[in-house]
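Quick one, probably user error.
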């Protein structure tokens, strides 16, 4: 995902090199050479990522980190520190001050780009949870709490038992978590939700080169472990590309070189703390709001929740300048389904369509049923091209496979028409944008149904 990156360094050539690396991935680049500039641009521009050099004209990276993380408006912006030479004390100091990662020159371009993608995905997920919390507050529900503290569960998946015991002994001196040793097969086994480890430390190469990364992908695909913290341990002999692969597959962080229990614990603490916070937020949100803001038939959000959520996305677009997309979706000739097969089968079709849509949108996207066979999907931080691709994929997901009725045992072919409108910082009333998406939807219907129609701007 492309985003806005603030590069801060008092050395011009360092900024130029970093700009070239990150611009190659189509990010928008902002630049600063002083701590004062960093703070001002961070407040005004709200970048998706900040890359700090070790020193600025009026302060070092650790001092700037302290100021960023102390500001409630800026604390969640991920920060990467670029060090001139490998230095353990520098790395630990930056991590303790709140840096998400420390990279050392000369850095691998592909790994740095993968790190940026990884951190911006994590930031987008956190922003979505914040939107849910704020929307709940606006709808008049009680403040969502963080639950109670508990001992966390940490699993180590090492290349062999001797290494695993060495890791556990080192971590045992610096963490209070319950630490378990797991084989690759045990970690791949079924784990009931709520009983799985909160965090995994996984060797990039367990039995063969890079096979630990397949485990990362598998854990991210399972309900019980999809939100677990995962740190991949890359050994000195592992090739450099394993780092970027691990980050793109969903690892929260990568530790390279020899095993360092203190550094690993320093990385784990904020990640696990954030994981527990978001777990509590998800659970409380579901328990407090599920009946009030979800559609009882399909389980997706209802019109009441969607309206408040859309207002918040529009405000964020005005603040950040990032575009967003709004889709209006409608099943084609749905009345004939009810007339031909009855309303029970019609409800079964709606439930299955909602399931397919839910499984094919991002976690940060909003899916809501606003009436009958009509749905809307809001996609924050989305470009026109991305929205067009997503809408076409959803059209195919619905239309290419008939819906099987559990009650009748028959298959019902269904298609969906979609209208898409793009909003940006100029959008005013979000209802006007929804009307534009509706007009695009009607155009899809008029052109023969089972189509996608785009509206470029909200102006």
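Nope, works fine. Designed sequence:
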């Amino acid at each position: 995902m492309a985003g806005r990156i603030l590069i801060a360094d008092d050395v011009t050539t360092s900024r130029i090199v970093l700009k070239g690396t990150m611009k190659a991935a189509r990010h928008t680049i902002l630049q600063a050479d002083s701590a004062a500039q960093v703070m001002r641009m961070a407040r005004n521009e709200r970048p998706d990522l900040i890359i700090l050099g070790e020193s600025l004209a009026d302060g070092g990276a650790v001092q700037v980190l302290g100021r960023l993380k102390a500001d409630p408006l800026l604390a969640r912006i991920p920060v990467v520190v670029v060090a001139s030479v490998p230095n353990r004390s520098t790395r630990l100091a930056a991590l303790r001050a709140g840096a998400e990662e420390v990279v050392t020159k000369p850095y691998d371009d592909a790994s740095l780009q993968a790190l940026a993608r990884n951190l911006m995905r994590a930031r987008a997920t956190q922003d979505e949870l914040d939107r849910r919390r704020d929307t709940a507050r606006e709808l008049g529900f009680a403040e969502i709490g963080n639950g109670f503290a508990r001992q966390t569960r940490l699993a180590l998946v090492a290349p062999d038992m001797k290494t695993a015991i060495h890791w556990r002994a080192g971590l045992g001196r610096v963490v209070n978590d319950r630490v378990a040793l797991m084989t690759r097969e045990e970690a791949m086994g079924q784990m009931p939700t709520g009983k799985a480890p909160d965090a995994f430390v996984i060797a990039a190469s367990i039995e063969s080169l890079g096979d630990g990364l397949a485990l990362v992908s598998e854990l991210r695909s399972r309900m019980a472990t999809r939100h677990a913290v995962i740190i991949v341990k890359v050994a000195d002999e592992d090739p450099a590309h394993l780092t970027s692969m691990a980050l793109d597959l969903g690892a929260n962080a990568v530790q390279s070189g020899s095993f360092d229990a203190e550094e690993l614990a320093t990385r784990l603490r904020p990640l696990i703390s954030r994981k527990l916070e978001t777990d509590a937020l998800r659970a409380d949100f579901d328990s407090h709001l599920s009946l009030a803001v979800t559609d009882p038939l399909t389980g997706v959000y209802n019109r009441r929740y969607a309206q408040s959520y859309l207002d918040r996305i529009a405000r964020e677009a005005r603040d950040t300048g990032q575009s967003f997309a709004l889709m209006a979706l409608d099943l084609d000739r749905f009345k004939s389904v009810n007339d031909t097969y009855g309303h029970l089968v019609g409800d079964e079709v709606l439930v299955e369509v909602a399931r397919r849509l839910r499984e094919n949108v991002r976690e940060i996207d909003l899916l809501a049923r606003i009436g009958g066979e009509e749905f809307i999907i809001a996609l924050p931080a989305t470009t026109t091209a991305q929205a067009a691709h997503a809408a076409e994929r959803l059209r195919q997901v619905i239309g290419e496979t008939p819906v099987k009725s559990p009650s009748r045992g028959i298959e019902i072919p269904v298609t969906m028409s979609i209208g898409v409108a793009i909003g940006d910082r100029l959008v005013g009333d979000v209802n006007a944008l929804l009307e534009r998406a509706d007009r695009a939807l009607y155009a899809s219907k008029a052109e023969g149904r089972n189509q996608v129609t785009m509206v470029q701007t909200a102006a």
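DSSP finds 15 helices and 19 strands in the chain.
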